[in-house]
User: Fold this.
Amino acid sequence: MKAIVTAAVALSVAAFTALPAAAYVYPTAGVSAQEVAAVLRARKLPVEITKDDAGDPMIKSASNDLNWRIYFYDCTAGRCTSIQFSAGFDLDNGMTYAKCNEWNYTKRFSRCALDDEMDPYTRYDIDVAKGYTSESMGYALDTWLLVVPTFSKFIGY
Assistant:
């Protein structure tokens, strides 16, 4: 009887640990940099939490040898209602508006913008004000991890 109970407990533990972790529901006031960083760390991505020029949180990270940032907007008491993934590329000769517009016309989940030196950036905005989960954040991150190398290739970086 003891062996049967031990086997049943072992099977129950194995079944429980095989299930994916439940998604964490963020409060409706937005997300914190620490919560977003936890999703990145779970994917084994580098994370440095710092602040932007306005004093809002910012995360520095990288994937595929390409650096990128996550900016936080409309922050109150450490919770922010929107975030923006952003990657900028310093090109020797910059990029044309036409090439940037080609990206914007043909892609759904990010946009191209040019700085004053005509260097391209790609950005992906997420509204997290009215409820968001760690699972949704993971899906957004998955999209971003596809966008960055695709954009890099598109601009010939």
Observations:
- Confidence is low (pLDDT under 50) at residues 1-20.
- Residues 134-154 form the longest helix (21 residues).
